[in-house]
Amino acid sequence: MSVFDANTGIIFDMDGTLWDSAENVAVSWNLAIQSDGRLAKTLTAADIQGVMGKTMDVIADLIFPELSKKERMELLTDCCTAENEYLRSHGGVLYPDLEETLSILQQRYPLFIVSNCQAGYVEAFLDHYGFWHYFKDIECYGNNCRPKGDNIRLIAERNHLKRAVYVGDIQGDYDASVQAGAAFVHAAYGFGTINVPVPKINGLRELATIELPYSEHQS
Q1: How large is the greatest C-alpha to C-alpha distance in the chain, in angstroms?
Q2: Given 8, 93, 102, 115, which residue has the most CB atoms within 10 angstroms?
Q3: Distance between CA atoms of 33 and 145, rounded to whole angstroms?
Q4: Which residues contact 39 (CB under 8 A, 6 or more apart)?
Q5: Rounded to whole angstroms, how far apart are CA atoms 210 and 179?
Q6: C-beta contacts of 191-195 below 8 A and 24+ residues apart
Q7: pLDDT score of 136 more than 60
């Protein structure tokens, strides 16, 4: 029987790590764009995947360059509201073995989520699938406008973690883990690559079997 280690935490990225919501995000954003009426534009899942992991202000600049900064943020707000509502009802595509893996890991370590998403996005995911009981704490850019590295550190500090590992799929996730002083595991099945050698998993099930590379968290 595994011994629970409250001092060591696994912190997950969302998109490209726990699920792929790009198709339904595109649907919800297109509904908001059509309702707004300022742009004759239809987004694809590939468009959404191309900006996932970036902060919301950067996404607005990339997706809506035709609009002024003020208009971009107004439309982004409408898109995010529509997205949260749509995902809460429809969900996304979970990566294989997610719940089984969370159930195993939860018996060994406290689990967390840190994302660059808008406020309400993580909650929509947890509401739709009933996953609240797997995670002790969550944080995101939309709550405090802080970058991912800061929020990884914030989760570690407020949950009194001595060791932490961040599981993510893109270079920005690795960079954020370095900034936060956390170890990193690459979800190689996700959306991106990492430019340095790091431990990796090709499926979530592997996370319950590999030796995780924990870094001592520095307050």
Answers
A1: 59
A2: 115
A3: 24
A4: 33, 64, 66, 67, 75
A5: 24
A6: 191/15, 191/16, 191/49, 191/52, 191/53, 192/16, 192/53, 194/170, 195/171
A7: yes
Written as six digits, the tokens of 194 are 């990492």
Q: What is the CA radius of gyration of the chain?
A: 17
DSSP secondary structure letters along 45-77:
HHHHHTTTTS-HHHHHHHH-TTS-HHHHHHHHH
The yes-or-no verdict on residue 64 having pLDDT over 70 is yes
Nearest Cα neighbor of 159 from 134, 135, 137 is 137
Report the pLDDT value the prediction gives residue 216, as an integer from 0 to 100.
62
Its pTM surpasses 0.85: yes
* Cα 154 from chain centre: 15
